[in-house]
Known about the structure:
Layout: H1 3-39, E1 48-55, E2 66-69, E3 72-83, E4 88-96, E5 106-111, E6 118-123, E7 136-137, E8 139-141, H2 146-159
Parallel strand pairs: 1-7, 2-6, 5-8
Antiparallel strand pairs: 1-4, 2-3, 3-4, 5-6
Amino acid sequence: MPPAAAATDRERSARRTETAIGIALVLAVAAPLVAFTATQERPTERGHIVVTARFENLGGLVAGSAVRIGGIDVGRVLSVKLDTDNLIADVALAIDSELALPEDSVASVGSGGVFGDSFIDLLPGKSAVTLPPRGRLAKTVRVYSLEETVARVVMGSVQN
């Protein structure tokens, strides 16, 4: 075999080896990511209903935050968007479909302390009518920031 042909064969062999190593690296990186994604809970899938609530102030609430009743997790916040027409936060919640949440239930934003994560706290109402999927919680409680609370206390004590 002439030297030029041997060099060409070596180049082809080297390219095949590099291609095989590249494919192996891609698979080594992609496989764990696919496995991780496949095992994550998807709140919008079977077992959850989506309802919405509107808030004047979210106090640090973000998508992925917990939704709780009596301190027990019953869902997750799916999204937080600003309603640009009314300048109010529109929050989508994925709630366990086994819950028959009364339509007069109240939603508020809670916090796990000064450095704790914010969450939605649901206080079930007394109505016999339950909130349907894609329904809206009509009653929400405004959250006051620490600064607003301090200002209200100071202003209240100054006026007295």
